[in-house]
Amino acid sequence: MNLKTALIENNSIRLGLSAEDWKDAVKLSVDPLIDSGAVLPEYYDAIIESTENYGPYYILMPGMAMPHARPESGVKRDSFSLITLKEPVQFSDGKKVSVLLTLAATSSEIHTSVAIPQIVALFELNDSISRLQSCSTPEEVLKMIDESKDSPYLEGLDLEN
Protein backbone atom coordinates (compact mmCIF):
# COMPACT_ATOMS: atom_id res chain seq x y z
CA MET A 1 0.00 0.00 0.00
CA ASN A 2 1.43 3.28 -1.13
CA LEU A 3 0.36 6.41 0.79
CA LYS A 4 0.51 8.74 -2.20
CA THR A 5 -1.25 6.33 -4.56
CA ALA A 6 -3.98 5.58 -2.01
CA LEU A 7 -4.68 9.28 -1.45
CA ILE A 8 -4.93 9.87 -5.21
CA GLU A 9 -7.03 6.78 -5.98
CA ASN A 10 -9.48 7.50 -3.17
CA ASN A 11 -9.55 11.25 -3.83
CA SER A 12 -9.15 11.48 -0.08
CA ILE A 13 -7.28 14.68 0.71
CA ARG A 14 -9.45 17.40 2.28
CA LEU A 15 -7.88 20.66 3.45
CA GLY A 16 -8.97 23.51 5.69
CA LEU A 17 -12.05 21.85 7.13
CA SER A 18 -14.01 22.84 10.23
CA ALA A 19 -15.03 20.29 12.84
CA GLU A 20 -17.31 20.75 15.85
CA ASP A 21 -15.43 18.22 17.99
CA TRP A 22 -13.16 15.16 17.73
CA LYS A 23 -16.01 12.88 16.60
CA ASP A 24 -16.85 15.27 13.78
CA ALA A 25 -13.16 15.44 12.82
CA VAL A 26 -12.95 11.65 12.66
CA LYS A 27 -16.13 11.59 10.55
CA LEU A 28 -14.65 14.15 8.15
CA SER A 29 -11.54 11.96 7.83
CA VAL A 30 -13.46 8.72 7.24
CA ASP A 31 -16.05 10.15 4.82
CA PRO A 32 -13.73 10.19 1.76
CA LEU A 33 -12.98 6.49 2.32
CA ILE A 34 -16.68 5.69 2.59
CA ASP A 35 -17.33 7.73 -0.58
CA SER A 36 -14.63 5.83 -2.49
CA GLY A 37 -15.88 2.43 -1.29
CA ALA A 38 -12.65 1.67 0.61
CA VAL A 39 -14.55 1.26 3.89
CA LEU A 40 -18.13 0.70 4.96
CA PRO A 41 -19.92 3.30 7.13
CA GLU A 42 -19.52 1.09 10.20
CA TYR A 43 -15.76 1.76 10.08
CA TYR A 44 -16.47 5.21 11.53
CA ASP A 45 -18.61 3.68 14.29
CA ALA A 46 -15.83 1.23 15.13
CA ILE A 47 -13.28 4.06 15.48
CA ILE A 48 -15.61 6.03 17.77
CA GLU A 49 -16.40 2.99 19.91
CA SER A 50 -12.73 2.07 20.19
CA THR A 51 -11.81 5.66 21.12
CA GLU A 52 -14.51 5.76 23.79
CA ASN A 53 -13.29 2.43 25.23
CA TYR A 54 -9.52 2.93 25.02
CA GLY A 55 -8.98 6.65 24.59
CA PRO A 56 -7.37 8.35 21.58
CA TYR A 57 -4.52 5.82 21.27
CA TYR A 58 -3.98 6.91 17.68
CA ILE A 59 -2.66 10.40 18.46
CA LEU A 60 0.88 9.78 17.27
CA MET A 61 2.43 13.18 17.93
CA PRO A 62 1.32 16.66 18.98
CA GLY A 63 -1.22 17.89 16.43
CA MET A 64 -1.56 14.63 14.50
CA ALA A 65 -3.86 11.62 14.78
CA MET A 66 -4.14 8.41 12.77
CA PRO A 67 -7.70 7.19 13.36
CA HIS A 68 -8.18 3.53 12.51
CA ALA A 69 -10.05 0.42 13.56
CA ARG A 70 -9.66 -3.31 13.06
CA PRO A 71 -9.68 -4.68 9.48
CA GLU A 72 -12.89 -6.63 10.13
CA SER A 73 -14.72 -3.41 11.05
CA GLY A 74 -15.65 -2.59 7.47
CA VAL A 75 -12.36 -2.30 5.56
CA LYS A 76 -12.84 -3.26 1.90
CA ARG A 77 -9.37 -2.28 0.65
CA ASP A 78 -6.19 -0.71 1.98
CA SER A 79 -6.47 3.06 1.92
CA PHE A 80 -5.62 6.39 3.53
CA SER A 81 -7.25 9.78 3.84
CA LEU A 82 -5.68 13.00 5.04
CA ILE A 83 -7.55 16.03 6.33
CA THR A 84 -6.45 19.28 7.88
CA LEU A 85 -8.57 21.41 10.19
CA LYS A 86 -8.67 25.20 10.39
CA GLU A 87 -8.91 24.93 14.17
CA PRO A 88 -7.69 21.94 16.19
CA VAL A 89 -10.12 19.66 18.00
CA GLN A 90 -9.50 18.42 21.52
CA PHE A 91 -9.69 14.75 22.42
CA SER A 92 -10.71 13.29 25.79
CA ASP A 93 -7.09 13.24 26.99
CA GLY A 94 -6.78 16.99 26.39
CA LYS A 95 -4.56 16.64 23.31
CA LYS A 96 -5.37 18.84 20.34
CA VAL A 97 -5.20 17.65 16.75
CA SER A 98 -5.37 19.53 13.46
CA VAL A 99 -4.15 16.84 11.01
CA LEU A 100 -5.88 13.47 10.74
CA LEU A 101 -4.46 10.76 8.55
CA THR A 102 -6.98 7.92 8.60
CA LEU A 103 -5.78 4.42 7.88
CA ALA A 104 -7.87 1.53 6.63
CA ALA A 105 -5.82 -1.65 6.44
CA THR A 106 -7.02 -5.09 5.42
CA SER A 107 -4.55 -6.74 7.80
CA SER A 108 -2.57 -5.90 10.92
CA GLU A 109 0.62 -6.74 9.03
CA ILE A 110 -0.02 -3.99 6.45
CA HIS A 111 -0.81 -1.59 9.29
CA THR A 112 2.52 -2.12 11.08
CA SER A 113 4.97 -3.00 8.31
CA VAL A 114 3.83 -0.81 5.41
CA ALA A 115 1.52 1.98 6.62
CA ILE A 116 3.29 3.14 9.78
CA PRO A 117 6.74 3.62 8.15
CA GLN A 118 5.21 5.86 5.45
CA ILE A 119 3.38 7.92 8.04
CA VAL A 120 6.52 8.29 10.17
CA ALA A 121 8.49 9.32 7.06
CA LEU A 122 5.97 12.07 6.26
CA PHE A 123 5.68 13.40 9.79
CA GLU A 124 9.41 13.41 10.45
CA LEU A 125 9.78 16.19 7.88
CA ASN A 126 10.61 19.53 9.51
CA ASP A 127 7.48 21.39 10.63
CA SER A 128 5.27 18.70 9.04
CA ILE A 129 2.10 19.67 10.91
CA SER A 130 2.29 23.40 10.16
CA ARG A 131 3.38 22.69 6.59
CA LEU A 132 0.44 20.37 6.01
CA GLN A 133 -1.91 22.91 7.54
CA SER A 134 -0.64 25.55 5.14
CA CYS A 135 -1.22 23.33 2.09
CA SER A 136 -4.07 24.69 -0.01
CA THR A 137 -4.16 21.98 -2.69
CA PRO A 138 -3.89 18.18 -2.66
CA GLU A 139 -0.87 18.55 -4.98
CA GLU A 140 1.02 20.38 -2.22
CA VAL A 141 0.36 17.46 0.15
CA LEU A 142 1.51 14.96 -2.47
CA LYS A 143 4.69 16.98 -2.97
CA MET A 144 5.42 16.66 0.75
CA ILE A 145 4.94 12.89 0.49
CA ASP A 146 7.43 12.85 -2.40
CA GLU A 147 9.83 14.80 -0.21
CA SER A 148 9.64 12.02 2.42
CA LYS A 149 10.50 9.19 0.00
CA ASP A 150 14.19 9.11 0.95
CA SER A 151 13.47 8.50 4.62
CA PRO A 152 15.41 5.65 6.23
CA TYR A 153 12.04 4.36 7.52
CA LEU A 154 11.13 3.40 3.95
CA GLU A 155 14.29 1.41 3.15
CA GLY A 156 13.45 -2.04 1.85
CA LEU A 157 9.70 -1.39 1.55
CA ASP A 158 7.97 -2.30 -1.69
CA LEU A 159 5.65 0.67 -2.12
CA GLU A 160 4.63 -0.09 -5.70
CA ASN A 161 1.49 -1.96 -4.58
Automatic annotation (TrEMBL):
<keyword id="KW-0598">Phosphotransferase system</keyword>
<keyword id="KW-0813">Transport</keyword>
<dbReference type="GO" id="GO:0009401">
    <property type="term" value="P:phosphoenolpyruvate-dependent sugar phosphotransferase system"/>
</dbReference>
<protein>
    <recommendedName>
        <fullName>Ascorbate-specific PTS system EIIA component</fullName>
    </recommendedName>
</protein>
<keyword id="KW-0597">Phosphoprotein</keyword>
<comment type="subunit">
    <text>Homodimer or homotrimer. Seems to be a monomer when not phosphorylated.</text>
</comment>
<dbReference type="InterPro" id="IPR002178">
    <property type="entry name" value="PTS_EIIA_type-2_dom"/>
</dbReference>
<dbReference type="InterPro" id="IPR051351">
    <property type="entry name" value="Ascorbate-PTS_EIIA_comp"/>
</dbReference>
<keyword id="KW-0808">Transferase</keyword>
<dbReference type="InterPro" id="IPR016152">
    <property type="entry name" value="PTrfase/Anion_transptr"/>
</dbReference>
<dbReference type="GO" id="GO:0005737">
    <property type="term" value="C:cytoplasm"/>
</dbReference>
<keyword id="KW-0963">Cytoplasm</keyword>
<dbReference type="GO" id="GO:0016301">
    <property type="term" value="F:kinase activity"/>
</dbReference>
<dbReference type="Pfam" id="PF00359">
    <property type="entry name" value="PTS_EIIA_2"/>
</dbReference>
<keyword id="KW-0418">Kinase</keyword>
<feature type="domain" description="PTS EIIA type-2">
    <location>
        <begin position="6"/>
        <end position="148"/>
    </location>
</feature>
<comment type="function">
    <text>The phosphoenolpyruvate-dependent sugar phosphotransferase system (sugar PTS), a major carbohydrate active transport system, catalyzes the phosphorylation of incoming sugar substrates concomitantly with their translocation across the cell membrane. The enzyme II UlaABC PTS system is involved in ascorbate transport.</text>
</comment>
